[in-house]
Amino acid sequence: MFLALAMGASAAVGTAEDARAAGRISLIRDSEIENTIHAFAAPLLRAADLDPTGLKIHLVKDASLNAFVTHGMNLFLHTGLLMRAEDPSEVVGVMAHEFGHIVGGHVILREQQIEATQRNLWLSYLAGAAAALATGRGDAFAGVALGVQSGMVENLMAFSRSEESQADQSATEFMDKVGISCAGLLKFMRILENQELLITARQDPYLRTHPLTRDRVAFIENHVKTAGISESGMPAAWRVAYARLRAKLFGFLESPARTLQRYPESDTGIPGRYGRAIALYRQADTDAAVKMIDGLLKDIPGDPYFLELKGQVLFEAGDVEDSIPPYRASVRASPHDAPLQLGLARALIARGGVADLKEAEKALEQALRDEPETPSYWKQLAIARGRGGEEATASYAMAEYALRTGRNAEARFHADKALQGLPAGSPARLRAEDIKAEAERLIDIAKKKK
């Protein structure tokens, strides 16, 4: 299921709370896209002596070119980068560079700078308050404080030229080890090079935080020439998967008219038909969309993401009954894709039979085993349990959801309700006690700050 958190595409579901929990940026969840990126990243991470299973992919709904890594092996990729790059080698090159920052310890250095920045932000607020008092204008406070903070953030995010060169060196080593040419990374650098003459406000954020120099470009150019790695060394399956990824992004994020123009009926390939199916669905042409998806499933039987899309199209058209079989089939084909489990659960909850609610619980419990930190799974689990008459466990699930989305008073309230009905010594009761204690601690901290 293509999930837009905080900002919705036409197909989007999800919550602003999920986005807040994820860092207050507009994120997209999609199993197919995330798994494709993971497949690209895994060999690079092994070449860097990093654990591929530790990588967390975050898709940022933003048309600009950008990618960055943060503490805890978190990789953020803007949708604009994925849609702009025409070949997966460009994205692989960018990821290799970002992993170079991890290996070089540059991310840890940024974490240390954050602490100093937080202290300086307080000083900026003091400076703003002084300006407001001196001028008698409240807007002076905002002007000074925001001006200072803007410079701090830019300085915090930007890597130094030496760090960039180190990351380039690491990227070439990783890509050489996996037998992929750095030509894609060079092509991406050329795109950035063309932006250097633009005023700063019009430059993509990647250029502003990753300073480009002629020496860096020359280094990659020379490496491409001397490494002796063919540009055709990219696995064919990666190109196919990437073409599908881009078609899916265009289908959901561009207007249906533009998607249909990009993927006309004369384009009979899998990605082209995939993009058209999504565009037709977003135009509310359910019959045509389902027919297109059925044709894709005839070519690739059992594909979990075509099945998922069929379930989503039917469900959002109000045909809950017919949406459940393809959702079930998608989960059977890929049982550890938590968003697929969520799609099935939502359809089962909507149908609402006793057996449906129990099946929805099982699906959501599996989703939480695979992704225990995702708030929306807890909320849907609370709904399924509540409609099934399981008041205490429903309250426990809502307490988990509330705590993970910063609703501390609600978390305490629901934890209290859960404790009234959960058996003594049960894991759920012990966890509810922990949630109540943590919520109360956070409430006390908030009071002291006021």
Architecture overview:
Helices cover about 70% and strands about 5% of the residues. The protein is globular and about 70 Å long. Strands 1-2-3-5-4 form a 5-stranded mixed sheet. A hairpin with a 3-residue loop joins strand 4 (about 65-70) and strand 5 (about 75-80). With about 450 residues, it is mainly α. It has helices at about 15-20, 30-45, 80-85, 90-105, 105-135, 140-155, 160-180, 185-195, 205-210, 215-225, 235-255, 255-260, 270-280, 285-300, 305-315, 320-335, 340-350, 355-370, 375-385, 390-405, 410-420, 425-450, and strands spanning about 5, 25-30, 55-60, 65-70, 75-80.
Task: Report a brief summary of the structure.
With 450 residues, the chain is mostly helical.
Which terms summarize this structure?
70% helix, 5 strands, 5-stranded mixed β-sheet, 450 residues, 22 helices, mainly alpha
